């Protein structure tokens, strides 16, 4: 049987859900598809966010030849055959451009990726590559320079997933609308939350439940929990995960490791995923511990990465280490507050230009304009020399954004900065 996620793929642009940061009626991306001027592009982001679906919709809208390949199973030989067919189509009577979509493009070697270059330069093909990896690290520079448009696909929100689920439930042709199974709103909400922004996971779980429920039954949160193999303690116990995350952060900030580990345990027991907890922990490492223990961000990041690699349930051990470390460490939000003060000035004051002696002087004509003149290179003075860095008006005001505390390691940074003030 064809999976529900495959049956429910949007067939036209108006059905596509998500990625509104670049795809919305009137956007350049949207108009380029409707005007049939869409060029080559690279889509990157997590699985189940619509990369393949959107590539297929684009090819249909373009009314062009379309080939879909997967880099994990397709080699250079097959690609060369497709390129030759595209060449004939482009230079023949039809003068038709061919779109080639390559999924998991990052899996190809440099040599395989470079086999597209000549066809791209000649305009024989339009290329859409999708990858879960950052293309700036996983795709050759030669390809990047010829593919100007790089679009990041973000995880779908629970609201997006809710829309997709309800569409499948009511669709009698492609979805499960013809199956006599009822759905509680709470069950749909839980499925949308536990799918972690992946439409494929949500739809295939939906199909699995519908195919295996007795006719006439109502799907409860318990069936969703069983199908997802995930706990739903948040919903059973009335806990709100955002309240628990807030309590966790405030307990860490208040240096109470017992309370902090309590809220971590409740989050884990309630079914919170590693990414949800990990993102908050990494923010806390800089916001609440900060310069009082600068190594916290490195250690916490390592713990979160280890947790993602290990997976639950053992990942809880890594997360526990990060929480205990931060709750037991000295605290300072001075670096965070420095940024807040600087942002406030930028938004409320008319700020003078960058001082001339700090401007870039590494191009012809810069020195003639006085740029870079009189700049003092601190390393030539033993590591520090007094000179102006702030824009003129802020310098004259004697603006100070960073106010270091005496907590932990920050006290040594404070002493160092105070010693510089005494140097004439």
Describe the model.
- By secondary structure, the protein is α/β, with parallel strands linked by helices.
- It has 4 domains: 18-152, Rossmann fold, CATH 3.40.50.300; 158-230, Helicase, Ruva Protein, domain 3; 237-328, Zinc Finger, Delta Prime, domain 3 (Up-down Bundle), CATH 1.20.272.10; 334-421, Orthogonal Bundle (post-AAA+ oligomerization domain-like).
- It has helices at 4-7, 28-34, 51-62, 76-91, 110-114, 117-122, 135-138, 141-146, 158-170, 185-194, 199-212, 221-228, 233-237, 241-253, 257-269, 274-289, 296-310, 315-328, 334-348, 392-397, 410-421, and strands spanning 41-44, 65-70, 98-103, 125-131, 149-152, 182-183, 218-219.
- The radius of gyration is 28 Å and the shape is flat.
- The mean pLDDT is 89.
Question: What's the short version?
Answer:
The protein contains 21 helices and 7 strands. With 424 residues, the chain is an alpha/beta fold.
What would you report as the Rg, rounded to the nearest angstrom?
28 Å
**CATH topology annotation of the largest domain:** Rossmann fold
The amount of helix comes to 40-55%
Q: How many domain regions?
A: 4
What is the averaged pLDDT score? 89
Shape: flat
Helix-strand blueprint:
Elements: H1 4-7, H2 28-34, E1 41-44, H3 51-62, E2 65-70, H4 76-91, E3 98-103, H5 110-114, H6 117-122, E4 125-131, H7 135-138, H8 141-146, E5 149-152, H9 158-170, E6 182-183, H10 185-194, H11 199-212, E7 218-219, H12 221-228, H13 233-237, H14 241-253, H15 257-269, H16 274-289, H17 296-310, H18 315-328, H19 334-348, H20 392-397, H21 410-421
